[in-house]
Amino acid sequence: MDQDILYHLALGSESHDLQEMFGDVKFVCMGGTPKRMENFAHFIMNEIGYKLPAGTQLQDISAYSYRYSMYKVGPVLCVSHGMGTPSVSILMHEMIKLMYHAKCKDPVFIRIGTCGGVGVEGGTVIITEDALDGQLRNSHEFTILGETIHRPAKLDKKLARELKALATADDPYDTIIGKTLCTNDFYEGQGRLDGAFCEFSENDKMAYLEKLRDNGVVNIEMESTIFAALTHHAGIKAAVVCVALLNRLNGDQVNAPKEVMHEWQQRPQILVARYIRKVLSHNGQLKSLFGHQGSIKSPRRFKLVQQESQAHE
Question: Where is the Nucleoside phosphorylase domain (predicted)?
Answer without folding.
Answer: 26-277
